[in-house]
């Protein structure tokens, strides 16, 4: 739960990254409409997730 809250708060505080993430998700959904595994593999959530965790420690 903490990870999800950190991710949410990070996205709120970093709107440019939130927009890039949103654009990426739309692009992947169009590219892989019937393949959730490829869609999930294409997201850079892990990188953003780590940034969010570090950001939360600083705040």
Give a verbal description of the structure.
It is a single chain. This protein is mostly helical. It has one domain. Helices cover 85% and strands 0% of the residues. Helix 1 packs across helix 4. The longest helix has 17 residues. The mean pLDDT is 86.
Classify the beta-strand content into a percent band: under 5%
Largest sheet, in brief, is: none
Q: How many separate helices?
A: 4
Helical/strand content category: mainly alpha
Mean pLDDT, to the nearest integer, reads 86
**H-E string:** HHHH
Q: Regions with pLDDT < 50 over 5+ consecutive residues?
A: none
Termini distance?
18 Å
How many discrete domains? 1
The helicity comes to over 70%
The total of beta strands comes to 0
Oligomer kind: single chain
Overall morphology: elongated
Rg, rounded, reads 12 Å
Fold blueprint:
Elements: H1 2-13, H2 15-31, H3 36-42, H4 45-58
List keywords for this structure.
59 residues; elongated; mainly alpha
Short description:
With 59 residues, the protein is mainly α. It has one domain (2-58).
């Amino acid at each position: 739960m903490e990870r999800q809250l950190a991710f949410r708060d990070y996205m709120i505080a970093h709107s440019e990254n939130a927009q890039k993430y949103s654009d990426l998700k739309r692009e992947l959904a169009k590219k892989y409409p019937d393949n959730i595994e490829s869609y999930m593999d294409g997201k850079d959530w892990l990188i953003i997730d780590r940034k969010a965790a570090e950001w939360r420690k600083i705040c």
